Every structure is written in C-alpha cells, then in structure tokens.
Amino acid sequence: MKLAIKVALITGGNSGIGFATARLFVAEGARVAITGRNPKTLQAAAKELGQNVLALQADVTDIAATERVVDTLTNQWGKLDILFANVGFHALTPIGQTSVAQFEEIIRTNLTGVFFTIQAAAPHLNDGASIILNGSVQAVLGIPGFTGFGF
Q: Is the distance from CB of 83 to CB of 69 less than 8 angstroms?
C-alpha cells in the first residue's frame, strides 16, 4: 500500500476526478478528507469510500470554511501528507456576453479558492508533503464560449 498511514485532503472529493482520486488514495491505505458543497453527494461519496474517509462540507470560496476544514482534519488525524486542490468551476463565458459577476465567480473558485486552500493547509503539512493542483485541458486547448475559464 503506497499511501499507508498518509493523510490527504481532497477538495471536491465528492464527485468526478476528486472522487476517483479519493477512491484510489483509500485503496492505497490513506486516510482521506473530502470536501464538497452539496451535503447529499458528500455523504453519499463518504459512504461509498468507507471508514477511512472524513466528509467535510465546505465551499472553497469561503475562506473561513476552508480553514475550519483544515483545523477539523488536523485535529482528528494530524498533519497532512497530501493536499489535492481539485475544485474547479466553469461556465459559458463568451467574449462580449460575460458579466463581471460570472468572471469573478470563476476566479474566486479556480484561483482565489486554491490559493487560500494552500495557505490554510501549509502550516499543517508534514515534511515532504505533496501539494497537487488539478488543472484543466482548457489551459492548452480552447473550448468555444468558455473564454473566462481559460484564464
């Protein structure tokens, strides 16, 4: 088991890539905290992943909630070995038709939320810990109409 006795935090671990990563980490022996905004999908994911999972409801755009997640996790399991910043948000944002509010929501989630997740976790990382930032193919491959997501 490659991750035996390791502690991981995966933002957006209640679905998609985050959930698949949590499943792999648990299978490799890690204790994994997952976050998500939706309490129903978060609890369903935790139930499916099993006993070595801690489900913590949080929105990465809420900095205080992210700090509470890190505090809860580290109080329960100790320092972190892996931070997987996975949460991402996109919306239809064509040039000339995108509002400031739409664009700012993307930036708050995909940039500001990631930065403050790392900042909250940094003092609680074990020596040699890994920070993994999950990006998007949008960084190198444009998708028509999703202009705001590519920044």
A: no
Tokens of 78: 């100790």
DSSP letter for each residue of 65-88: HHHHHHHHHHHHH-SEEEEEE---
Per residue in 89-130, pLDDT (tens digit) is: 888 889 999 999 999 999 999 999 999 999 999 999 999 999
Residue 141: C-alpha distances to residues 114, 133, 149 (Å): 21, 18, 11
| Structure tokens, 38 | 């939706």
Q: Which of 44, 48, 45 is nearest to 18 (CA)?
A: 45
Query: In the chain, where are the structural domains located?
Result: 7-150
| Residue 139 token pair | 């960084």
Say how many C-beta atoms besides its own lie within 10 A of residue 78's C-beta.
13
Q: How far apart are CA 11 and CA 80, in angstroms?
A: 13
Instruction: Give SS3 for 42.
Output: helix
Amino acid, res. 63: I
Residue 150's pLDDT band (cuts 50, 70, 90)? low
Query: b/e string for 82-102 if b means 16 or more Cβ within 10 A?
Result: bbbbbbbeeeebeeeebeeee
| Predicted TM-score of the model (pTM) | 0.93
Fold type of domain 7-150: Rossmann fold (3.40.50)
